[in-house]
């Protein structure tokens, strides 16, 4: 931590809020100053969640802090529940109660008695050493621990997607593509996209699914919990590239015992072939001059690297991830200062990263990995990065860049 | 009063200095920004100020909604200092000083440190940091305490940034270089409209130089501003700057009644024009016109209930003015109640009214409460029909004016709305 010239990594509290506030039917209440929530609501609105988002903040003042008064939480909840129909309440801390050591868990327990029948869950995500990855992980884990109810598997095969979050560029398009692939390859329907297309009811029914697809490592703990509670197997990974997508579908087949619809895959690969082959062709001539670099969330960076470097054979450039616990496999964790240093000698070619880094390196600012702070998700039908349509999208982007 | 009490709003009669103003309801829409937001917005507008937001990731990350670029148009730096878990316990002095030194090395000339909730909560001693850096860096530094838990909203971000700027420049040069008796009048705010122009001409004719200080050029004028011998305050946001300048001051912004404005102008005349030099009263025609308008307003606006949702620093003076003309104040949106507001509180109470003071953070309660009244609103409110409100752009236009002209425009607009109301339409002002 320390000095940032652009912006710091979002905190655990922010990660949890981003994960929880997109869930329909739930009220999210933060105990803290109101300034943060105004910004958070804007961030959620830009991601496309203005209507469904029921995120509130109590605000607090010096007296509350000095005397440890927490009445505002109860009062706020009373007022909110009078006006909105909530199926669950998610209570999250802000930085202030974390410093003064407010026992939010105990308050949550008290509230559970007060609102009998209404799940009131506390999300312990306030630590100052936690970043948003940890916040997302905690939120997903706690949701999967506390909300799902005992259930029988559905007759028709269904699955859940775990770990679709608004911090990633094209999060919505990626989730849609995964749904399309599952339907096309196996006829499996997705019942819950946790948490960007989820509601309280669908989270309660998480146990009914035959399989869980964990898209990012922050969802592994949640996947494990569901496996333990309901015996649901899970697959961790994001499908990038043709090889990566086919392999991913085969793994789902193994896990679910279903046979992949080969005709679907053949058709999809045929759709990709024009741009895919043209890119490969151009790489034969100019490949030496261009390298592929990427930085951001580990699952995205790893997936993009596998596709660009291992499958397409683009020269390896600079790779980094944004969490210490994720580094490995040749992808180091770099802090902002180090990234800015490295960008001065990033090899020519394609760079996919945060908008500010792309700007700093003088690269195409549309090659994003993370959602930028001023990014608006007006169009949910943009092409994805993952799956076969992701292949078409990425190959066209890279082709244009290399041309 | 037969108003419902369940919202916990504060009746004006109970307001004293530093009484906490209750929120209109649970912050939802619109909520209220923190002082960091406005301090950054102001610094961006003023230009030539580098900023360092000191706090948690929340503050630093979202500060990019305001400071979208890390470099300003004049090369200013806009950086963030995030406290880690260790600094939350043991303080961030060392790291912060290193960060400031780095900004100094990179060419920042004037750095505004914006402390947010956590550094304010742990009590980081910024004065000590500044003292320790004194002489070690070339950049001038100043700070504001933007902890949101100390305030209901963002106004402090404006007020304190202005005040601290005044303090920085006051402490820069030796007192000898200041010409106390020179002929410069500092006008804090914009000189817009015919009356402002006339005021400018009158002072210029009397031999005074006018230094108009507004957002666009304040930094460039800070050294010069100290040479003024009188401050005229028109922009209430610059009230703290006026105080920091420690010059004789006349506030034109809080007067609305014709007699009050006349008294202000008379005081101004006494201070600036030698006795016997200007026989004619300043803007006598406008005074008379406003008197006429006030008479008319007493008939046409009588008994109309109103709320104020904007111009919070002037909400009480405006309400006192309109109350004196027979309107009925129901609710005033403010963040705090200051010493200067006491006189207007008493005026309103003496007229027999006791409006609520609230910080507007959501409008659902407001809408529900207002159902019983055919309200007019000064400033936007979703709780009032558009045909019953002076919307924000109109308010901005009116409040950019000076003296009689401002009051005349305000009354004209209100009387227009009253005429519309008389013509018929909706049964009350609510949506």
TrEMBL record, chain A:
Signal peptide coordinates: none
The segment(s) forming the Nitrogenase/oxidoreductase component domain are: 13-333
Database matches in Pfam families: Oxidored_nitro (PF00148)
- What GO molecular functions are on record for this protein? oxidoreductase activity
Organism's domain of life? Answer: Bacteria
Q: Which InterPro entries match?
A: Nase/OxRdtase_comp1, Ni-siroh_cyclase_CfbD
What's the name of the protein?
Nitrogenase molybdenum-iron protein, alpha and beta chains
**Organism source for this protein?**
Anaerocolumna xylanovorans DSM 12503
UniProtKB/TrEMBL annotation, chain B:
Any one Pfam family match given in the protein's UniProt record, by short name: Oxidored_nitro
* Nitrogenase/oxidoreductase component domain ranges (all copies): 34-416
Per the UniProt record, the source organism is Anaerocolumna xylanovorans DSM 12503
Give one GO molecular function term: oxidoreductase activity
Q: Which domain of life is it from?
A: Bacteria
Q: What Gene3D superfamilies does this protein map onto?
A: Nitrogenase molybdenum iron protein domain
What name does this protein carry? Nitrogenase molybdenum-iron protein, alpha and beta chains
């Amino acid at each position: 931590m320390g000095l940032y010239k652009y912006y710091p990594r979002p905190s655990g509290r922010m990660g949890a809020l981003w994960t929880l506030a997109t869930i329909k039917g739930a009220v999210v209440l933060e105990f803290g100053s109101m300034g943060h929530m105004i910004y958070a609501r804007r961030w959620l609105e830009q991601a496309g969640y203005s209507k469904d988002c029921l995120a509130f903040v109590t605000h607090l003042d010096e007296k509350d802090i000095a005397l440890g008064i927490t009445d505002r939480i109860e009062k706020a909840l009373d007022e909110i529940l009078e006006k909105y129909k909530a199926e669950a309440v998610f209570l999250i801390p802000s930085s202030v109660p974390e410093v003064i050591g407010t026992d939010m868990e105990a308050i949550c327990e008290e509230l559970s008695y007060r609102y009998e029948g209404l799940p009131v869950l506390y999300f312990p995500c306030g630590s100052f050493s936690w970043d948003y990855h940890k916040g997302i992980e905690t939120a997903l884990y706690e949701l999967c621990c506390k909300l799902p109810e005992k259930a029988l598997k559905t007759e028709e095969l269904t699955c859940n997607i775990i770990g679709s979050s608004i911090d990633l560029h094209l999060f919505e398009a990626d989730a849609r593509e995964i749904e399309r692939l599952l339907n096309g390859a196996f006829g499996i329907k997705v019942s819950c996209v946790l948490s960007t297309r989820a509601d309280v009811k669908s989270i309660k029914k998480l146990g009914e699914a035959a399989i869980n697809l964990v898209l990012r490592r922050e969802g592994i703990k949640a996947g494990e919990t569901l496996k333990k509670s309901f015996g649901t197997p899970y697959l961790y990974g994001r499908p990038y590239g043709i090889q990566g997508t086919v392999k991913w579908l085969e793994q789902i087949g193994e896990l679910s015992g279903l046979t992949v619809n080969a005709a679907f895959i053949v058709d999809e690969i045929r759709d990709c072939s024009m741009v895919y082959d043209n890119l490969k062709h151009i790489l034969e001539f100019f490949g030496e001059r261009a390298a592929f670099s990427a930085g951001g969330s580990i699952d995205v960076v790893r997936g993009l690297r596998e596709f660009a470097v291992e499958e397409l054979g683009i020269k390896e450039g600079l790779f980094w991830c944004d969490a210490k616990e994720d580094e490995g496999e040749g992808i180091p964790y770099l802090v902002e200062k180090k990234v800015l240093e490295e960008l001065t000698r990033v090899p020519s070619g394609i760079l996919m990263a945060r908008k500010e880094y792309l700007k700093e390196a003088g690269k195409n600012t549309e090659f994003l990995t993370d959602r930028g702070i001023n990014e608006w998700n007006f169009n949910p039908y943009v092409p994805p990065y993952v799956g076969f349509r992701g292949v078409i999208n990425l190959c066209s982007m890279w082709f244009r860049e290399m041309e | 009063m037969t108003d419902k009490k369940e919202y916990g709003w504060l009746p004006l009669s109970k307001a004293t200095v530093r009484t906490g103003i209750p929120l209109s309801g649970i912050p939802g829409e619109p909520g209220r920004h923190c002082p960091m937001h406005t301090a950054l917005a102001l610094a961006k507008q003023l230009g030539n100020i580098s900023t360092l937001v000191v706090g948690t990731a929340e503050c630093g990350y979202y500060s990019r909604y305001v400071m979208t670029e890390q470099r300003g148009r004049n090369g200013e730096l806009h950086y963030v200092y995030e406290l880690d878990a260790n600094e939350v316990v043991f303080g961030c002095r060392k790291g912060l000083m290193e960060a400031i030194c780095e900004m100094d090395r990179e060419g920042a000339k004037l750095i505004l440190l914006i402390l947010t909730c956590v550094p304010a909560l742990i009590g980081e001693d910024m004065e000590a940091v500044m003292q320790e850096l004194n002489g070690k860096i070339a950049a001038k530094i100043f700070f504001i305490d933007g902890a949101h838990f100390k305030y209901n909203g963002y106004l402090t971000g404006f007020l304190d940034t202005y005040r601290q700027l005044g303090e920085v420049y006051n402490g820069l040069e030796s007192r000898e270089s200041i010409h106390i008796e020179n002929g410069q009048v500092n006008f804090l705010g914009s000189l817009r409209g015919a009356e402002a122009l006339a005021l400018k001409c009158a002072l210029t004719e009397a031999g005074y130089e006018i230094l108009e200080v507004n957002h666009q050029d304040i930094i460039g004028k800070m050294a010069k501003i100290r040479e003024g011998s009188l401050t005229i305050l028109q922009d209430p946001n610059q009230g703290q700057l006026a105080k920091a300048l420690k010059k004789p001051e006349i506030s034109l912004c809080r007067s609305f009644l014709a007699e009050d404005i006349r008294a202000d102008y008379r005081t101004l005349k006494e201070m600036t024009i030698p006795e016997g030099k200007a026989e004619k009263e300043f803007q006598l025609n406008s005074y008379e016109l406003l008197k006429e308008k006030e008479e008319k307003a007493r008939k046409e606006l009588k008994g109309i209930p109103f709320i104020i949702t904007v111009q919070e620093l002037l909400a009480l003076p405006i309400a006192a003015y309109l109350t004196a003309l027979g309107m009925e104040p129901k609710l005033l949106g403010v963040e705090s109640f200051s010493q200067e507001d006491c006189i207007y509180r008493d005026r309103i109470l003496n007229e027999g009214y006791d409006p609520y003071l609230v910080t507007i953070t959501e409008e659902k309660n407001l809408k529900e409460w207002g159902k019983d009244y055919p309200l007019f609103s000064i400033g936007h409110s979703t709780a009032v029909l558009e045909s019953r409100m002076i919307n924000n752009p109109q308010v901005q236009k009116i409040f950019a004016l000076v003296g009689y002209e401002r009051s005349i425009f305000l009354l004209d607009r209100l009387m227009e709305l009253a005429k519309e109301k008389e013509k018929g339409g909706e049964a009350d002002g609510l949506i």
